[in-house]
């Protein structure tokens, strides 16, 4: 709880320190909150803070400072039990491929349908589909194969109703292996497309 209050104080000081009358700078604090600990302030404590700020405002000729506005917004956001969007994203986000193939197997249709449903319900969400390969073959071949894998996953998602504007397809080829061992099992884990929200 002290960490969240400290974070709020830091955000307030950063925002007020960066603001000026003629500035076009927009400061958007990005806070990562674990789902289990979202409710940091109890309703009573939040209400006490709001009341103390209201008293402050009444004493200072009915004006609210920017610092007070930001602090009140942070308390309200935390008090409203905002759930991170990540809690609603599909869990399975990896499609595996056979050696030197780029065709998406039917065994991944259900997983892709769940991801497509999520994207259709959250039109502001964007998805990066990254194709990977194992280390066998030339660097150029593996890059192209990774791109075809990512493209085929994107095509499946579009057929399931996802808007193209929500998708970006990239290849990392043989770089960034899931398993760096040089065994058949490791190569199998490396032949994949990863869905990154």
Automatic annotation (TrEMBL):
<dbReference type="InterPro" id="IPR050330">
    <property type="entry name" value="Bact_OuterMem_StrucFunc"/>
</dbReference>
<dbReference type="InterPro" id="IPR006690">
    <property type="entry name" value="OMPA-like_CS"/>
</dbReference>
<dbReference type="InterPro" id="IPR036737">
    <property type="entry name" value="OmpA-like_sf"/>
</dbReference>
<dbReference type="InterPro" id="IPR006664">
    <property type="entry name" value="OMP_bac"/>
</dbReference>
<feature type="domain" description="OmpA-like">
    <location>
        <begin position="84"/>
        <end position="197"/>
    </location>
</feature>
<dbReference type="InterPro" id="IPR006665">
    <property type="entry name" value="OmpA-like"/>
</dbReference>
<keyword id="KW-0472">Membrane</keyword>
<keyword id="KW-0998">Cell outer membrane</keyword>
<dbReference type="Pfam" id="PF00691">
    <property type="entry name" value="OmpA"/>
</dbReference>
<protein>
    <recommendedName>
        <fullName>OmpA-like domain-containing protein</fullName>
    </recommendedName>
</protein>
<dbReference type="GO" id="GO:0009279">
    <property type="term" value="C:cell outer membrane"/>
</dbReference>
């Amino acid at each position: 709880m002290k960490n969240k209050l400290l974070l709020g104080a830091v955000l307030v000081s950063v925002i007020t320190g960066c603001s000026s009358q003629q500035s076009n700078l927009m400061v958007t604090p990005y806070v990562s909150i674990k789902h289990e600990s979202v409710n940091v302030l109890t309703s009573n404590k939040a209400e006490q803070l709001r009341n103390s700020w209201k008293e402050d405002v009444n004493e200072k000729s009915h004006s609210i400072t920017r610092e007070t506005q930001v602090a009140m917004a942070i308390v309200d956001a935390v008090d409203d039990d905002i759930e991170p969007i990540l809690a609603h994203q599909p869990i399975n986000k990896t499609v595996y491929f056979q050696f030197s193939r780029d065709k998406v197997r039917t065994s991944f249709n259900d997983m892709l349908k769940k991801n497509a449903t999520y994207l259709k319900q959250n039109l502001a969400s964007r998805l990066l589909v990254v194709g990977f390969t194992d280390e066998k073959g030339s660097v150029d071949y593996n890059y192209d194969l990774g791109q075809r894998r990512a493209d085929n996953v994107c095509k499946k998602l579009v057929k399931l109703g996802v808007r193209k504007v929500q998708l970006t397809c990239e290849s990392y080829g043989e770089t960034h292996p899931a398993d760096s061992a040089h065994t058949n099992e490791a190569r199998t884990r490396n032949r994949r497309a990863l869905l990154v929200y």
